[in-house]
Design a protein that fits this description.
Structural class: alpha/beta
Number of helices: 10
Keywords: Signal
Low-confidence stretches: 1-24, 185-190, 302-307, 312-321
Number of domains: 2
Number of strands: 11
CATH superfamily of the largest domain: Class I glutamine amidotransferase (GATase) domain
Length: 321
């Protein structure tokens, strides 16, 4: 949890000692902002579901951002980025560098790297013609479960559209990763998507992920393929598929300075506004978005040591819930 958390609730613990307890965190201020000015109640509700305090933002300037731990942005335009956002990009970049989390869900996609801190190398491709109604999750994605619930490889499918394009994994800055993917980017022989989606479990699931979903050095990859063939007497399931570095990211993340950037080609404003088929609308609004926010900014946790410290300072006969 970054150091921007509001301090007002910390007084509840009753002692500065409690503030130093490991594993504790407090609710953060999460701003929500639409580049077209259409801030939705569902956006605020997702922030609350993630355990944080929603703050409506009309202009993301330096003064506003100084009070935020994260800023969740939607872009409702299919043709440009809002000037109220781009004119404040320097302030946004500075805030992320100082520890703020920036989350952007974008319809336009084209040139998105230019409106993201540290995103100059990002290859964001707008594509609404194919693969735009299917979203899967790579093995180990941290947003599969969270404060909103559990997602699987069908939870976000069937949208109109589920995505407006993709980011190539190889273009991510150092430390970046794919949180959700368009499976068309990883399809090989037999229509392979992900190891979990193919039904693998146990050793096969682990080995499949090592071969098909996790980037390896050439020698390590050769070793894993040889192990697979020797044990299972068949080619790996992704034979003929592009390597993980060329997969199409629907939602991606990377660190920047002391903060983090999460970028997505999901037209989330559409679903937050109550439009689109359901499913997947509710899954986007009440499961996916809280999980993304909850992973980027973990929800408040009062651990056992903190509870004990609080109990010792409670009035006689008092009880810590």
């Amino acid at each position: 949890m970054n150091t921007r958390f509001a301090t007002s609730t910390l007084a509840i613990l009753g002692s500065a000692i409690a503030l130093l307890m490991p594993g504790t965190s407090q609710a953060g201020n999460v701003g929500y902002f639409d580049m077209c000015g259409g801030n939705q109640a569902a956006h605020a509700a997702a922030i609350t579901a993630a355990g944080h305090t929603p703050v409506a933002v009309t202009t993301p300037d330096a003064e506003t951002l100084s009070n935020l731990d994260a800023l969740s942005v939607t872009n409702c335009s299919n043709s440009n980025f809002g000037s109220n956002y781009t004119s404040n990009l320097a302030a946004i970049t500075s805030a992320v560098n100082g520890g703020m989390v920036l989350i952007v869900h974008d319809r336009f996609v084209t040139g998105a790297g230019g409106i993201l801190p540290g995103g100059g190398s990002l290859n964001a491709v707008r594509n609404t013609d194919s693969g735009n109604a299917d979203i899967d999750f790579p093995g180990g994605s941290p947003i599969i479960s969270g404060p909103g619930g559990v997602l699987n490889n069908t939870s976000l499918d069937g949208g109109n559209s589920s995505t407006h394009g993709y980011v190539t994994a190889a273009s991510l800055p150092a430390g970046g990763s794919l949180l959700a993917i368009r499976p068309t980017g990883g399809v090989g022989e037999g229509g392979f998507t992900t190891c979990a989606a193919e039904g693998y479990t146990g050793t096969q699931l682990t080995w499949c992920r090592n071969i098909c979903e996790i980037e390896q050095t050439p020698s390590a990859l050769k070793t894993w393929i040889r192990r697979w063939v020797d044990r299972f007497h068949s080619d790996p399931p992704c034979a003929g598929a592009p390597p993980p570095s060329s997969m199409e990211g629907a939602t991606v993340q990377y660190p920047y300075g002391e903060g983090r950037v999460i970028y997505s080609t999901i037209p989330l404003d559409y679903y937050l506004g109550g439009s689109g088929p359901n499913p997947p609308r509710d899954n986007f609004n009440t499961v996916y978005l809280p999980n993304v926010i909850g992973w980027a900014l973990p929800p408040p946790v009062l651990d056992k040591q903190a509870k004990q410290a609080q109990a010792r300072r409670a009035p006689s006969g008092g009880r810590v819930k």
